[in-house]
């Protein structure tokens, strides 16, 4: 799809991979809406790129429905959806002094990363299904999993479960939405230099980068955004997961 002039939504667009994607889409001429819980950062990014910030909790039914109403009123029906909102706790299944993993944290991780992603996909697609086709398709969805879906590390049971769910639902959703001519792809990033990692000391960042076979460094958010652009533009990309990781296979810790 040609991006220019289309209405686009980026969840988690206030920060990191989502922010880089929102900037890329705006630079390509899209009308961008950011769905995020971080109002201050979301508004700052929206004003920088000339789009809108909508305070949305992706895991909440009514919040997503209201957010989609606002986008449609401001920019028209959204054609591009990039799901980047996510949380990443690090807790072992059995912790110190044999304390079990708190169930509420496990549930919250799955609720935001997996159920939240599906919540936005289904509501976005239901509206888009009624829109006109453009050059033989209606729109494109890009989800964000993680290499932790395949090689999750110690402490990543909840995170890996949530991202494994995103990987697993990619093909059936693409099959469901084929009749509506909406494509669905998922990116599984390796280690990217986003605010979460920027706070780490330089020697820790260097050590993480050194684990990547080639290029031996952390990924740049703009490189994630570049793959989103390719996915949106290439009409044959559908129903699959692309690892974007410099060939890293994560060690247990
Ligand atoms: N950075 C990495 O190395 C990396 C690697 C693999 C996968 N990922 C995934 O990429 C995505 C983006 O990661 P990032 O590093 O840019 O993280 P980030 O923390 O910089 O950004 C995530 C954004 O999601 C928002 N968010 C969280 N919960 C939300 C909710 N319920 N509703 C709406 N917004 C919510 C946050 O406010 C934040 O702005 C995440 O899904 C993450 O799991 C990141």
UniProtKB/TrEMBL annotation:
One of its GO terms (molecular function) is oxidoreductase activity. This is Short-chain dehydrogenase/reductase SDR. It comes from the Bacteria. The keyword Oxidoreductase applies. Keywords: Oxidoreductase. The keyword Oxidoreductase applies. SUPFAM superfamilies: NAD(P)-binding Rossmann-fold domains. Gene3D superfamilies: NAD(P)-binding Rossmann-like Domain.
